[in-house]
Amino acid sequence: MKITDKIISIPPFISTTWDKVSSLHMDDKLLIVTLKDTTRVAIPGLSQEVINEIFHAHANSLGEPQTTSALAGPFRMLFGTLESLTQALQHNPAYSNLAPLPEEVVSKIQMLAKSLPPEELENYLHPIDGCNCMYCQITRILKGEESTHVALPEEEVAEDELKFEEWIVESVGDKMYKVTNKLDPTEHYNVYLGEPIGCTCGRQNCEHIVAVLRH
């Protein structure tokens, strides 16, 4: 295997110069190399370190500065033409809740949009409403559309609901209660709230008495 800013050689899958490569992207755990003649080469079994090295080498071959962002590694896409974009990206509902792209990346995509014919943007790019996957975010930015991804509001939870109830309390007689461990039904005690208050565990002010009093 040899990866430089001039060539990519990963026998027996591929050995070519970067000027023959149109784009890179990840499909699950496969690295997909799309050549300028539209040939697609799938390379399995690469470590994350090697994948990062390949993306960095591709960026260097194009003279692109390497920056650290949310698109590092397999998510760093090199936007050159609409053809390379549509080849590299596909709508993926599994990532519909992906975080928004960094502003620096959004700016670069917006610059690319200015160089593309409006009819191509209209005819070839179709973001899905409500989806925030990589494809939908990028195509939405290219078309100048507002994001339709709406974050779900955080639900307020009452403090009492946050407390884990460990014990099941059952009334078994006058002022007598059975307290059973939810996680271990074989562990149970009898609590009496008469005079005197007591529990069969033999301890004073035990958690079993507290559980009955809160019941």
Description:
- This protein has 215 residues and is α+β, with helices and mostly antiparallel strands.
- The chain has three domains: 1-74, PH-domain like, CATH 2.30.29; 79-150, no CATH class; 165-214, no CATH class.
- 28% of the residues lie in helices and 22% in strands.
- The protein has seven helices and ten strands.
- It has helices at 48-61, 82-88, 103-114, 118-124, 134-142, 159-162, 207-214; strands at 2-3, 7-10, 14-17, 21-27, 30-35, 40-43, 167-173, 176-181, 188-192, 198-199.
- The strands form three sheets. It has a four-stranded antiparallel sheet, with helices on one face. A three-stranded antiparallel sheet has the order 1-2-3.
- The termini are far apart.
Counted by DSSP, the helix tally is: 7
Amount of helix: 25-40%
Q: Mean pLDDT, rounded to whole units?
A: 76
The radius of gyration is 30 Å
Strand content range: 15-25%
CATH class wording of the largest domain: Mainly Beta
Order of helices and strands: EEEEEEHHHHHHEEEEH
Summary?
The chain is α+β, with helices and mostly antiparallel strands and 215 residues long.
Primary descriptors:
alpha+beta; 215 residues; PH-domain like; elongated; three-stranded antiparallel β-sheet
Q: Which helices and strands occur, and which strands form pairs?
A:
Blueprint: E1 2-3, E2 7-10, E3 14-17, E4 21-27, E5 30-35, E6 40-43, H1 48-61, H2 82-88, H3 103-114, H4 118-124, H5 134-142, H6 159-162, E7 167-173, E8 176-181, E9 188-192, E10 198-199, H7 207-214
Antiparallel strand pairs: 1-2, 2-3, 4-5, 5-6, 7-8, 8-9, 9-10
